[in-house]
Task: inverse folding
C-alpha cells in the first residue's frame, strides 16, 4: 500500500518557495482560515462537531467522517458524530480502546492511514484489509499539553493520494478541533452544577439577560418558575447530608426528564431552590408545567434501597412580555413573591404572581 503521507519531492518544495500561491491554494487557505475561526467561535460541543464533520469531509474528500471523544476514564471512544452519504448523525456508539488498533493509532499521535472497517457508518481502522479497498485516515486529536482527547477517522478512496498541502490542512484542523473540544468540555463543567448536572445560577442569569433583551427586540412573552423543596432542612438534619444530596440529584432528574428539551432552561439556583426559564411560553403553559413537576415530586419515592421518603415542592410562577421593561431582579422578585405565597398557603402547591395594578 502506498504511503499518502510521504514528504513532497524537493522540486515541489522549491516550486512552493519560489512561486506565488496559485488561486486554488489561496482559496483553500481562505476556507481553512474560515473553518478554524468557526471551530474556535463556539463552546457548544454539538455545534463544534457538526462544523468539524463538514469541514473535515470537505478538505479530505472523504466518503465517511467520524469524530470520537475519550470518556472520562479514557477506556472507550464515544462517537460524537458521523458524516456519511446518508447525512450527519449522532449514533449512540462507543468502542473500547485498550489493546485495540484504535489505541495503537492514537498513541502514535500523528496522522496515519490504516485498512478500513465500517461499523454503523463509523469508519474505523483495522489491522488488515483487502487490496484496492478504501482506507481509514486517522487523525489523533491532541488537546492541551499534547494530551489525546479523541480521534477523527475518515474513509478515503484507495486511489486518492493526499497532497502535502492537504495533509497540513488536516493537521491544522485536527489540532484546532481538539483544543476546541477540550475547551467545550471545560465550559460544560463550569456551567453545570456538579451535584445535579443542571445549569448553574450564573448561567441562568446570563441567559435571562439575553432573553429579556430578545423580548425587547422581537416581542413575545417569557416566564420563570422558582421551585423550593419543602422542609428540606429536616432531611439534612434527620437523615444526613448524603441523603439530602440524593434527594437533590433525584429531583434534578425529574426536572430534566419532564421539560421541553431545547427551549426550557433548568438551573439549580442555590441549596434546595431551582429555577426554570421558559422563553416564548404563556403563563398558562408555565403553570401547567409547574403543577406537573409538583405532582411528580409528591408521587416520587426519594432515597435509596435502604431508606425511602416523600418530599414535596412549592413553586412560584412569574411572567413578563414586551410591553414591560423589567430587570432580571424584578422578574425574580415576582417569582419569589409567588413562592412565598405558596409556602404561606400550606406548601406543596404552585402560586402565580399577581399584578397589584390589575388585582
Result:
Amino acid at each position: 500500500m502506498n504511503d499518502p503521507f510521504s514528504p513532497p519531492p524537493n522540486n515541489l518544495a522549491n516550486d512552493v518557495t519560489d512561486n506565488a500561491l496559485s488561486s486554488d491554494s489561496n482559496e483553500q487557505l481562505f476556507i481553512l482560515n474560515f473553518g478554524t475561526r468557526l471551530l474556535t467561535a463556539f463552546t457548544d460541543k454539538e455545534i463544534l462537531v457538526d462544523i468539524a464533520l463538514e469541514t473535515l469531509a470537505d478538505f479530505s474528500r472523504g466518503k465517511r467522517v467520524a469524530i470520537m471523544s475519550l470518556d472520562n476514564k479514557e477506556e472507550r471512544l464515544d462517537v460524537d458524530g458521523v458524516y456519511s452519504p446518508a447525512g450527519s448523525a449522532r449514533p449512540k456508539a462507543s468502542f473500547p480502546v485498550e489493546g485495540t488498533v484504535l489505541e495503537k493509532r492514537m498513541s502514535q499521535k500523528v496522522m496515519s492511514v490504516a485498512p478500513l472497517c465500517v461499523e454503523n457508518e463509523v469508519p474505523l481502522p483495522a489491522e488488515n484489509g483487502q487490496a484496492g479497498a478504501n482506507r481509514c485516515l486517522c487523525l489523533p486529536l491532541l488537546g492541551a499539553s499534547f494530551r489525546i482527547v479523541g480521534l477523527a477517522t475518515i474513509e478515503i478512496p484507495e486511489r486518492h493520494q493526499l497532497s502535502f498541502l492537504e495533509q497540513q490542512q488536516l493537521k491544522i484542523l485536527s489540532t484546532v478541533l481538539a483544543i476546541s473540544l477540550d475547551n467545550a468540555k471545560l465550559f460544560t463543567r463550569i456551567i453545570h452544577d456538579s451535584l445535579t448536572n443542571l445549569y448553574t445560577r450564573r448561567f441562568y442569569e446570563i441567559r435571562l439577560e439575553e432573553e429579556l433583551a430578545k423580548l425587547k427586540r422581537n416581542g413575545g412573552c417569557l416566564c420563570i418558575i422558582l421551585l423550593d423543596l419543602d422542609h428540606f432542612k429536616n432531611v439534612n438534619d434527620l437523615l444526613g447530608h448524603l441523603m439530602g444530596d440524593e434527594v437533590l440529584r433525584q429531583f434534578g432528574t425529574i426536572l430534566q426528564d419532564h421539560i421541553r428539551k431545547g427551549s426550557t432552561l433548568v438551573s439549580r439556583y442555590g441549596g434546595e431552590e431551582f429555577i426554570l426559564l421558559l422563553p416564548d411560553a404563556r403563563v398558562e403553559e408555565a403553570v401547567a408545567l409547574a403543577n406537573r413537576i409538583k405532582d411528580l415530586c409528591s408521587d416520587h419515592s426519594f432515597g435509596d434501597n435502604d431508606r425511602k421518603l416523600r418530599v414535596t415542592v412549592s413553586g412560584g410562577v412569574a411572567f413578563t412580555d414586551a410591553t414591560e421593561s423589567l430587570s432580571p431582579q424584578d422578574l425574580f422578585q415576582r417569582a419569589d413573591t409567588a413562592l412565598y405565597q405558596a409556602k404561606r398557603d400550606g406548601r406543596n402547591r404552585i402560586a402565580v404572581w399577581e399584578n397589584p395594578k390589575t388585582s
The chain has ten helices and 15 strands. Residues 10-187 form a domain with the Beta-Lactamase fold (CATH 3.30.450.40). The first helix runs from residue 10 to 18.
